[in-house]
Design brief:
Elements lengths: L1 H14 L15 E10 L4 E4 L5 E6 L4 E6 L6 H5 L5 E10 L2 E6 L2 E8 L3 E5 L7 E6 L1
Antiparallel strand pairs: 1-2, 1-3, 1-9, 3-4, 4-5, 5-6, 6-7, 7-8, 8-9
């Protein structure tokens, strides 16, 4: 019986597969982000976006941001979507626990990442913009 127990234990240990997937509750920039809202500015802008209208996909291995912009008008939604469909270089910096996002060497603002939310605040107190994304 002891030998059989040992064989079963060895098979069980080697049969278990460690998952290398990103846990669904991990806080990370990696993945697909749907633009949800842009607000602020002197005029008190408050633009809501539907899921799929503007999608940012961050590849943390290559530091590439792929943008899919499905806005076809030239109105405010198009203007405040920031980028047209394409691929852009990005990087982040952290100073005094404040993380900032740069796209094509342009500072977009202070970045706050939650489990399913990404906020980009351009940091201008009186007339700045806040862009909110959701996974």
């Amino acid at each position: 019986m002891t030998r059989l127990s040992l064989v079963v234990l060895v098979i069980t240990v080697f049969a278990c597969k460690k998952s290398i997937d990103t846990p669904s509750n991990e806080i990370t920039l990696k993945g697909n982000w749907n633009m949800k809202n842009v607000s602020g500015g002197l005029i008190g802008l408050n633009l809501d976006y539907n899921p799929g209208e503007v999608i940012w996909i961050f590849n943390i291995t290559t530091n590439k941001l792929s943008v899919t912009n499905n806005i076809i008008s030239t109105g405010p939604k198009s203007i405040y979507a920031r980028y047209q469909t394409g691929t852009y270089d990005y990087y982040t910096t952290t100073l005094n626990s404040i993380e900032q996002l740069y796209v094509d060497n342009t500072l977009l603002g202070v970045m706050t990442i939650g489990i399913n939310t990404l906020n980009l605040d351009d940091g201008v107190a009186a007339d700045g913009f806040l862009t909110v994304f959701e996974k």
